[in-house]
C-alpha cells in the first residue's frame, strides 16, 4: 500500500540522531531503498532549472549539471510534461531524444535514466532523477517506491519553503548546491543586455553549449568579470 511505502521511506530517511531528514538523506536513502546507481533532485521554476538539491555521487552530480547546462534530459522533461519520463536504454532508445545530453551521459557511464515530477497539488517544484549504469527498466516495486519518494521530496521542499518570504528561497534550500552563481551571472547579463533574467539565462546557457563548457563555469567567468555579454 502507498501508506506503507510512505512510512517505510520516511523511517529510512530519519537521521541517526533524530530530527528531520536533510537533503542529503533524501538522495542517499532514496538510492539505497530503490537500489539504483544514482539519485539526483533538481528544483525548477518557470521551465528553467534552479539547480540540484542533492546528488549521491560524482557521476549523478555530473548528470544533474549536464541537464542544468543543456536544458534537456529526464528531469527537465518530467517537470515540463508533468509525467514520469523513462529511458531504459540511452544507447538504443526507441525514440531518440536529448541529442546533446545523451552522448555525454553515455560517456559518463549512465545507460538508463528515469525522471519523476515533484509536485504537491497544482504546485510543481522540479523532478527526481534516477540513474542506472546498465540498461534496463525499473521493476514495478522500484517504480512504486520512486513515486512515493517523489512525494516525500516534494513535501520536504514545500515544508522548508513555507516560512520563507515571498520570492525568497528558504535558507534550508540555499545551503544546498543550488547554482547561485548562475543566477548572479544571469542578473549581470540582464543588465548588460537590457533583457529579462529568463532571456539572460537562455543566453548564458546558449554560450555554454556553443563553447562546450559547463554552465557554472561560464557563470563564474561572468561574475568575476572575465566574460561580458553585449
Describe the structure in your own words.
With 230 residues, this protein is of the alpha+beta class. It has two domains: 2-166, Beta-Lactamase, CATH 3.30.450.40; 180-223. Helices cover 50% and strands 17% of the residues. It contains ten helices and five strands. It has helices at 2-13, 23-34, 58-70, 74-81, 101-107, 140-161, 171-174, 180-193, 197-210, 215-223; strands at residues 38-45, 48-55, 85-87, 112-120, 123-132. A five-stranded antiparallel β-sheet has the order 2-1-5-4-3, sandwiched between helices. A hairpin with a 2-residue loop joins strand 1 and strand 2. Helix 2 (23-34) runs antiparallel to helix 6 (140-161), helix 8 (180-193) packs across helix 9 and helix 9 packs across helix 10 (215-223). It is globular. It starts with a helix and ends in a 7-residue tail after the last helix. The mean pLDDT is 84.
Amino acid at each position: 500500500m502507498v501508506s506503507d511505502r510512505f512510512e517505510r521511506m520516511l523511517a529510512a530517511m530519519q537521521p541517526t540522531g533524530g530530527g528531520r531528514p536533510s537533503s542529503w538523506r533524501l538522495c542517499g536513502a532514496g538510492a539505497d531503498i530503490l537500489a539504483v546507481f544514482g539519485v539526483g533532485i533538481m528544483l525548477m521554476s518557470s521551465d528553467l532549472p534552479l539547480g540540484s538539491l542533492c546528488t549521491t555521487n560524482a557521476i549523478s552530480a555530473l548528470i544533474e549539471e549536464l541537464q542544468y547546462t543543456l536544458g534537456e534530459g529526464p528531469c527537465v522533461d518530467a517537470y515540463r510534461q508533468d509525467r514520469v519520463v523513462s529511458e531504459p536504454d540511452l544507447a538504443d532508445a526507441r525514440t531518440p531524444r536529448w541529442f546533446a545530453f545523451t552522448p555525454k551521459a553515455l560517456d559518463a557511464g549512465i545507460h538508463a535514466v528515469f525522471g519523476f515530477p515533484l509536485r504537491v497539488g497544482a504546485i510543481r517544484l522540479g523532478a527526481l532523477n534516477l540513474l542506472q549504469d546498465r540498461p534496463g527498466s525499473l521493476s514495478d516495486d522500484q517504480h512504486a517506491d520512486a513515486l512515493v519518494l517523489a512525494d516525500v521530496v516534494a513535501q520536504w521542499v514545500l515544508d522548508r519553503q513555507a516560512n520563507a518570504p515571498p520570492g525568497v528561497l528558504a535558507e534550508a534550500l540555499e545551503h544546498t548546491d543550488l547554482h547561485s552563481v548562475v543566477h548572479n551571472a544571469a542578473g549581470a547579463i540582464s543588465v548588460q543586455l537590457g533583457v529579462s533574467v529568463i532571456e539572460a539565462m537562455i543566453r548564458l546557457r546558449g554560450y555554454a553549449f556553443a563553447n562546450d563548457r559547463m554552465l557554472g563555469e561560464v557563470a563564474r567567468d561572468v561574475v568575476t568579470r572575465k566574460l561580458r555579454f553585449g
